[in-house]
Amino acid sequence: MSLFAKSSALDERSARLAGIGLMLLGIFMFSFGDALGKFLVGTYSVGQLLWLRACAALVLLFPVIWRQRSAFLSLERPWLQLLRVTLSTIEVAAFFLATVYLPLADVITYYLACPIFVTALSGIVLREKIGWRRWSAVLIGFCGVLIALRPSASSVTWPALIALAGSTSFAFLMLITRSLRATPDIVLASTQFIGTFTLGALMAPFGWVTPQLSSLGLFALAGAISVSALMCVNRSLKLAPASVVVPYQYSMIVWAVAFGYVVFGDVPQIATIVGAAIIIAAGIYIFLREQALGREETAVSPPA
Q1: Tens digit of pLDDT for each residue in 38-96?
Q2: Which of 10, 30, 93, 229 could form a disulfide with 14 if both were Cys (CB 3.0 to 4.6 A apart)?
Q3: Are the CB atoms for 280 and 137 separated by under 8 Å?
Q4: Calpha distance 165→95 (Å, rounded)
Q5: Rounded to whole angstroms, how far apart are CA atoms 73 and 64?
Q6: Can you list the residues of the chain whose pLDDT is less than 70?
Q7: Number of neighbours of residue 54 by Cβ within 10 angstroms
Q8: pTM (2 d.p.)
């Protein structure tokens, strides 16, 4: 925590550099945690991963939760909070379920489309005015999704559709989060882990495999990585303008390809690389347009 406290006193240029560094570090840790989760679900069930990972995360967050416990007593729009936790839990479960069957880079590519889905849904669900430039970027981004998905009777599989459904759930989650900006960060983060803890506890007994001591350490590491990555990303956004640091979140595709190749031997398809490049370009353009119009930015984040 001392590192984060000291970093707040840096001059503007140094703060921006520190923000970029923390964003890159946070995205690396998120990507490492995703790869670790994919490794674990090769042996253990998704329910076990969700439950044990959430246990470790909540243990680490408990001191902060206890200090800010009053923030949990008067939540704005409780039913909307519950819907947000439900969507968050669904998208995390969908993410790790998809990684059981798909290369990590493929799953991340579908999640990179989240800002594109958010922009499209903002116009449809929230009736926000979206100009032709951003609609064009949305359509181009969807083309990138289709290229990565490689739709055909034989290539569109249930795991791919699960990953795409998880990404869509994440988009709705971001829309709801826009409406809950008055909710403290610790409440938003901890309730997400509580959601995965609950679903994991319900799913874990089915297909339970008793973890070895070394595997328990990996589950704990996965939870610790998630919390640390979340802290880095949040601090990054406080140190530097979002327009400076958010584009660096797209570095997750680089790590997904690297971890997929080194750990699992996955060689990314050309279609996945081309689709990811188109999605990233469209997402960055949408982000910059929203910044120019003074709107709330949409950050790209892996599952919490």
Answers
A1: 999 999 999 999 999 999 999 999 999 999 988 888 888 889 999 999 999 999 999 99
A2: 10
A3: no
A4: 9
A5: 15
A6: 1-10, 126, 151-156, 242-243, 293-304
A7: 27
A8: 0.82
- With 0-12 / 13-18 / 19 or more C-beta atoms within 10 angstroms meaning exposed / middle / buried, residue 271 is middle
Extract the tokens encoding 147: 């290229």
Residues 50, 248: Cα–Cα separation, whole Å: 27
Map tokens 């840790």 to a residue: 29
Q: How far apart are CA 293 and CA 133, in angstroms?
A: 12
Written as six digits, the tokens of 244 are 């400076």
Q: Is the CB of residue 130 less than 8 Å from the CB of residue 290?
A: no
CA-based angle 186:189:192, to the nearest 5?
Answer: 140
The three state secondary structure string of the chain is: CHHHHHHCCCCHHHHHHHHHHHHHHHHHHHHHHHHHHHHHCCCCCHHHHHHHHHHHHHHHHHHHHHHCHHHHCCCCCHHHHHHHHHHHHHHHHHHHHHHHHCCHHHHHHHHHCHHHHHHHHHHHCCCCCCCHHHHHHHHHHHHHHHHHHCCCCCCCCHHHHHHHHHHHHHHHHHHHHHHCCCCCHHHHHHHHHHHHHHHHHHHCCCCCCCCCHHHHHHHHHHHHHHHHHHHHHHHHHHHCCHHHHHHHHHHHHHHHHHHHHHHHCCCCCHHHHHHHHHHHHHHHHHHHHHHHCCCCCCCCCCCC
